[in-house]
Amino acid sequence: MRTLQVLTLLLSIWSRSYGQDGSDIRYFKVSAVDTTLIGQYVQFDFFRRSFGAQSIDTVIINIDNRPIRFVERRNDNGYNNWFFEQYLQSVDTTNGQTTRISKFRLDYISLKSFQVTMYVDFYDTNHNFIADKSRQVRYWFDKKDVAEVLVKSKQL
Description:
There is one protein chain. This protein has one helix and ten strands, in the order αββββββββββ. By secondary structure, the protein is mainly beta. It has one domain (about 20-150). The longest helix is centred in the first third of the chain and has 16 residues, at about 1-15. It starts with a helix and ends with a strand.
């Protein structure tokens, strides 16, 4: 009887200390991305894999015929990572505004590139979202510049 009580106590302590991580992201190698993902929202991990918020990269994207340098923002501690917390943010401001690409919609896949619609947002100097400036921009990325493709999981 005493053994059963000790075992119950230990199982009770263990069950309360066990935690499950959370994520609504599926990770795809570039070679595994196929037409089943067309139309879905994605994020790109550029150049080097940035899992666990390591190896954060910058990428230059032309918007309005002007090159803008973006840094990957990955809120990812290796256990909890959510699709809406991943984005690209401009390194420099333009007219006091920061540019953010909140997500991409995958429109087409060729042998060498991903064609997307970028969701571009702007923020003022106080980090307030400027809704009337947001827009969608068509763009493409060379597959060789992409380390991994992040897709919002449908399970959650």
